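Hello again,

I reread your note about wanting to compare the complex against the isolated chains. To keep things tidy I'm splitting this into two emails, and this first one only covers the full assembly. Below are the input lines as submitted, including protein chains and any nucleic acid or small-molecule components. They are followed by the predicted structure of everything together. The single-chain runs will come separately.
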Amino acid sequence: SQKIEQNSEALNIQEGKTATLTCNYTNYSPAYLQWYRQDPGRGPVFLLLIRENEKEKRKERLKVTFDTTLKQSLFHITASQPADSATYLCALRGRDDKIIFGKGTRLHILP
Amino acid sequence: EADIYQTPRYLVIGTGKKITLECSQTMGHDKMYWYQQDPGMELHLIHYSYGVNSTEKGDLSSESTVSRIRTEHFPLTLESARPSHTSQYLCASSGGGGPYNEQFFGPGTRLTVL
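Full-complex prediction:
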């Protein structure tokens, strides 16, 4: 069955450093991969999308890479700030338009 | 302002009651979705709709039902609530024609069945 794996443990990063989150998947060939941010008690908010034929995407302090051979995406936040503390969800969308979400990684940026 | 709304935000109810969770969006999206999420766990798709009078069951089996009579409205109904239905329910929509085809989520309804 399709499976998405994200860092199961919380990630603690010092303010100003780069945070790197990992998303691995199996038994799936996504058309594209999305990253969302979710704050406690709120719905997820879309951040970035990367397509299967793209290697890297950037948006301000965010960078996403996508390696379809390794079946892995890396999500980077540079110059991290305490306000970046949240849970980050990886989501795969197939050609049938359905999305499957990972459990997410909780990120804590320490001041 | 274009947005997606869910009511109520919190609901505590007794076993056996019928409940309806409301979801409305003002973005004109064709596609709408209901997810169930337990604390620390992934979102599970329980229902989706690709337009008026179209509804499909998602990957996670659910005793709830949905309807899509109007584009902007996608309510979820539980005929007889049970403690196993306690969870967070998130509504989402997509399809605005933008380049990312991302899903826009509502704030969620936290349901507790006693």
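For quick reference: The radius of gyration of chain B is 14 Å.

B.
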